[in-house]
Structures are given as structure tokens and as C-alpha cells.
């Protein structure tokens, strides 16, 4: 029994010793490894913390190394996207998944040899009535339309055809005068002749007048006959309408000739001239080309579309062309390049009305893109010739261009709608050196008081008060003597007065704020050139005003009170200059 207890005690001691030898050292190693692992984790975490940047969803240009509030609008900062290391200022990087979902495709551009069809300008347009052949059929006397024989558009009208019948009380009285004077024509021929001439002025023919005189009967209704042949393009009166003398009843167009009116872009104007031959193709007769000559180029450019109207006159004796029909015009332009040209698909080019833009893949191994402005030449089918901006071997986005542009805009990079800060080439206000006389400076300081009151009224969104203070500021500036000042100084002052007058005569708050933008572009440089204002002035700027281009204003308080948005974004902005 004692021997068994002894054996058990020895076994327990051996087991404890073996456990200590196995698990004790392992635990020490584990603790050591844990310490090393903790140090490694701590190091990695601090590395991530150092690399993590924070940005504002409303102002992507804000980048800070730690969380906080946006210094512009006060919103909470959010983590910026990682993986942008090594990118240039306006480069963007997209994920492979985003590329696949948007079906973004790229193409390598290169030189191509010009063919005989290159240099052809293609213009889109439509058929319009030839206004030189339009005529208005009017009533020659006052009355009521009893019957309208031609009453729908597109109806054919021949010269001498009865258009309408009109009841004319004045003609009834004139007929009675004719019958009365007919018996006196021997004794009073002048009176008789005057009455006949009155009826002739109302377009009654001699035969009609003779018929009235011979019958001795007064007619109540009188006919209106067509004076030209053509097609009714507009019915301007209806049966039962009372019409005045000279009031239009119908508009008639002679469609024996029509106009083909095309829209030509600004960069195509230099290749166009009156007298140039143009071939016209319609969807209705796709296999036929009609020869015409450019007869008119509009001297005024349309601001909305940045195009001019180019017109050609077409013969239409067979009635092939219908007004409103879409047509395409092709004419030979002058190719402003060598025999080797760079062409790109039309789908690759984004046109803003002023600029032509493409997206270049800047890294051949990764989906990294950057916008580039190019100068395009003539269009040949579905391709554009590129005059400047691309080189042989550049890889550009040819499908999904607008998706890439949207990604750039969301990341605050240069895009079609946002040209980026580096595009602002205007002279900084602090560098505008202007000199003012002491007399003008005193008057300008007086004008600052109502100006600042106007600014406060814009903050309060009180349009009536804005108008009143704008008028007071304008009056103060107008009393200043500016004849001795330089041309730049006078230009700023006159433009300021112009904007103040526009604000004073306008009761629309948004319109007032639009004018306030331009006002400050002129007032702020003046204030910065004036020696010693009565109080400290702060030049403050809201980057979101003026369609995200930014706008400034003057304030005597350092605290931001935004006049461009009022309560909507009261504290959006920052101080950019101090005027002491």
C-alpha cells in the first residue's frame, strides 16, 4: 500500500516537471512572440494612421492628416480614398471592377494617311421655307369673316383663288355712296371719281364696281382673292373672326425653292464662305446627292450652342424637300495639317462649347487617367482629325468617356465641368496695382458704408434692403471725380457702378447675388489699393459660389457670414486677405 502511494507521488512529480518543461518555455516563447507581434501591430497601425488622409465631401481639395471639421464649410471630414499614392494632381485611378461595369475602353492613337475624303466638312441641318418666297394674304377692309375657303396648313393656293368672304359694313356704306353719286356723275364727276377710287383702295376691281353700279344692288359680303400661288404655311384667322384692315388671314409659301439651314461649329467657320459648293443628302433620298451653293453665313454666333447658321438654297420643283426634313451637308474644307494626321473616334471627344477634351491613360499598366484639352479639325465620318494635343502612341478613352469624367469630378480633379485651380489665369487681386487720388479715396471710403449694409442685407436675404443700399452705394461712387484716373481704375469703377445699378433695379435675390459676384471682382481690388480704411476689412471667399468658381466679398468682421447663400450656408467661406 505504501509502495503504491510512493509510486503515485513520484508519477505526479514527474508529470509536473514534464509539464513545466513543455508548457512553461512555450508560454515564455508565446509571451515573447506576443510582445513582438504587439510591437509589429503597433508599428503597422501607426503607419496606417500616418498614411490615412481626411477630406471634405463638399470640398475635395481639403486634405488633412487627421479627422476634424472642414475649414471651409464646417462639415465633418471623411476618410479620403487610399491608393492614390504617386498620382499627379489631376490624375484619377479607377478600379478594374468600375472599368468593367462602365465598359470603359481605350484605343492607341496613331498617324493615318489622308485620303481623298479627308478634309470634308459634314454639317447637320434641316429644310426650312424660303422666307424670300413667303407672302401674307391680308384683309383690305374691316369686317367679319363669314366664310374661310382655305383653312388648313399645307393646302395649295393658286393666284386669283377665292380665299375668304367678309362682311364689311364700311363697304356697304361705300356702295350706297357709289349708287348715289352715279346719278350725279355728269354734274359732279370729281365726287363720283373719288367714290370709285375709295372702292379701288379696298381692292375692288373695275368690273366689280361696274357690276354694283349697273345692278343698283348693295352687296353685304365681299370676296378676298389670293394674290400669289403657293402652299399655306400658317392659318392666322378663323371663320367668325373680326379682322382689321391689313390684318393677316393666311401665310403662303412658294416651295419651288427651299432653304437648307445647317449648324456650323466655331472651329469650322474659317473653312466656310459664301458661294462655296455644298452637297446635300436627306434621309428620305439617302442614295441621292443634291448640289447647292452656300448663299448665307450668319454673322452672329449663337452663344448657347456656339454655332452659326449656314444656308444654301435648293430648287424644289419636284416637291422632294419638305420643310422640317433633316439633311446633311458635305463640303470641302482646308485641311490645316500635313499629309500625316492623328484621328480619334468621335466618341472619345467631349465638347463643352468652348473646349474639346479627351481622357488619356497615363499609366500603361494601371487604369490611371488624366483629362487633356485638344484642338480638333474636320470630321470625317465617325472620326475627328486632331490638330493639337495628342501624339502618336497616346492611349485615350474611346468608350465611357463621360463616366471617367464623372469620376474625376467627384474626386475634385480637373474635369469637363471643373477646369481646376491651375486654369485660373486671371491676375490675382493683390497684384492689381492701381492708383487713386486722395479725393477719390475719401469718396470711396464713404461708399463702403452702404456697401457693407448691402452685404448684410444679402446675408439676411432681404431683396428690398439690398436694392436700397445698392442705390446708395452707386450714388456715392457716381459723385466721385474719376476723370484724372487711369483707364484700368476707371474701368473698375464704371463696372462697379453698372453692377450696383443692376442690383438696385432688381428685386430678384438670386439675380442680385449674381451681380454681386461681378461687383466684388471690381470693388475688392479698389479697396485693396486704397490707403488706410477707417476699419479693418477682411476679403472673404466662398469657393462654392459662382457655380463653384468661387466669389469674394468685403467684411469688417472676421467671422464668416456668407452673402451668396445666407442661412443655407451661412459659414461657408474663409478669410483670404486683410486690408488695414
UniProtKB/TrEMBL annotation:
Give the CusB-like barrel-sandwich hybrid domain ranges.
141-252
Q: Which InterPro entries match?
A: 3HB_CusB, Beta-barrel_RND_2, BSH_CusB, CzcB_C, DUF3347, HMBD, MFP_Cation_Efflux, RND_pump_MFP
Q: Where are the transmembrane segments?
A: 5-23
SUPFAM superfamilies recorded for this chain? HlyD-like secretion proteins (SSF111369)
Query: Which Gene Ontology terms of cellular component type are present?
Result: membrane; outer membrane-bounded periplasmic space
Domain Heavy metal binding as annotated: residue spans: 54-80
The cross-references to PANTHER family, in alphabetical order and at most eight, read: CATION EFFLUX SYSTEM PROTEIN CUSB (PTHR30097), SLR6042 PROTEIN (PTHR30097:SF4)
What name goes with this protein? Efflux transporter periplasmic adaptor subunit
Amino acid at each position: 500500500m505504501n509502495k503504491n502511494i510512493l509510486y503515485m507521488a513520484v508519477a505526479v512529480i514527474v508529470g509536473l516537471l514534464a509539464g513545466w518543461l513543455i508548457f512553461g518555455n512555450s508560454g515564455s516563447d508565446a509571451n515573447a512572440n506576443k510582445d513582438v507581434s504587439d510591437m509589429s501591430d503597433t508599428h503597422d497601425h501607426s503607419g496606417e494612421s500616418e498614411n490615412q488622409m481626411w477630406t471634405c465631401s463638399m470640398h475635395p481639395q481639403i486634405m488633412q492628416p487627421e479627422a476634424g471639421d472642414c475649414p471651409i464649410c464646417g462639415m465633418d471630414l471623411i476618410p479620403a480614398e487610399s491608393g492614390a499614392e504617386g498620382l499627379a494632381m489631376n490624375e484619377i485611378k479607377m478600379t478594374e471592377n468600375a472599368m468593367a461595369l462602365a465598359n470603359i475602353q481605350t484605343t492607341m492613337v496613331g498617324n493615318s494617311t489622308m485620303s481623298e475624303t479627308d478634309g470634308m466638312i459634314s454639317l447637320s441641318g434641316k429644310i426650312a421655307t424660303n422666307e424670300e418666297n413667303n407672302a401674307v394674304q391680308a384683309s383690305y377692309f374691316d369686317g367679319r369673316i363669314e366664310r374661310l375657303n382655305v383653312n388648313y396648313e399645307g393646302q395649295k393656293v393658286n393666284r386669283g383663288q377665292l380665299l375668304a368672304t367678309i362682311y364689311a359694313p364700311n363697304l356697304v356704306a361705300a356702295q350706297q355712296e357709289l349708287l348715289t353719286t352715279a346719278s350725279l356723275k355728269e354734274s359732279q364727276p370729281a365726287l363720283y371719281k373719288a367714290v370709285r377710287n375709295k372702292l379701288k383702295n379696298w381692292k375692288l376691281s373695275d368690273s366689280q364696281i361696274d357690276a354694283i353700279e349697273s345692278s343698283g344692288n348693295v352687296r353685304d359680303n365681299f370676296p378676298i382673292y389670293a394674290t400669289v400661288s403657293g402652299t399655306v404655311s400658317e392659318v392666322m384667322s378663323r371663320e367668325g373672326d373680326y379682322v382689321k384692315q391689313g390684318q393677316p388671314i393666311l401665310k403662303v409659301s412658294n416651295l419651288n425653292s427651299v432653304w437648307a439651314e445647317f449648324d456650323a461649329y466655331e472651329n469650322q467657320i474659317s473653312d466656310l464662305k459664301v458661294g462655296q459648293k455644298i452637297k446635300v443628302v436627306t434621309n428620305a433620298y439617302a442614295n441621292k446627292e443634291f448640289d447647292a451653293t452656300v448663299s448665307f453665313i450668319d454673322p452672329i454666333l449663337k452663344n448657347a450652342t456656339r454655332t452659326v447658321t449656314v444656308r444654301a438654297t435648293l430648287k424644289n420643283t419636284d416637291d422632294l424637300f419638305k420643310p422640317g426634313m433633316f439633311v446633311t451637308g458635305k463640303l470641302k474644307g482646308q485641311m490645316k495639317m500635313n499629309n500625316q494626321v492623328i484621328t480619334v473616334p468621335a466618341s472619345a471627344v467631349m465638347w463643352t462649347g468652348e473646349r474639346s477634351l479627351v481622357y488619356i491613360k497615363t499609366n500603361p499598366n494601371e487604369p490611371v487617367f488624366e483629362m487633356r484639352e485638344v484642338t480638333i479639325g474636320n470630321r470625317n465620318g465617325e472620326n475627328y482629325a486632331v490638330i493639337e494635343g495628342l501624339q502618336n502612341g497616346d492611349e485615350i478613352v474611346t468608350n465611357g468617356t463621360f463616366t471617367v469624367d464623372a469620376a474625376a469630378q467627384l474626386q475634385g480633379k480637373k474635369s469637363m465641368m471643373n477646369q481646376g485651380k491651375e486654369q485660373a489665369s486671371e491676375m490675382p487681386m493683390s497684384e492689381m496695382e492701381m492708383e487713386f487720388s486722395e479725393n477719390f479715396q475719401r469718396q470711396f471710403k464713404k461708399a463702403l458704408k452702404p456697401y457693407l449694409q448691402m452685404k448684410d442685407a444679402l446675408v439676411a436675404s432681404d431683396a428690398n434692403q439690398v436694392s436700397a443700399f445698392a442705390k446708395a452705394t452707386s450714388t456715392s461712387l457716381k459723385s466721385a471725380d474719376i476723370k484724372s484716373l487711369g483707364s484700368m481704375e476707371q474701368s473698375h469703377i464704371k463696372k462697379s457702378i453698372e453692377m450696383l445699378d443692376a442690383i438696385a433695379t432688381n428685386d430678384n435675390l438670386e439675380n442680385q447675388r449674381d451681380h454681386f459676384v461681378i461687383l466684388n471682382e471690381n470693388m475688392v481690388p479698389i479697396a485693396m489699393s486704397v490707403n488706410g480704411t477707417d476699419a479693418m476689412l477682411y476679403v472673404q471667399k466662398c469657393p462654392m459660389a459662382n457655380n463653384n468658381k468661387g466669389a469674394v466679398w468685403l467684411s469688417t468682421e472676421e467671422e464668416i457670414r456668407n452673402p451668396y447663400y445666407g442661412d443655407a450656408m451661412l459659414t461657408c467661406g474663409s478669410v483670404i486677405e486683410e486690408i488695414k
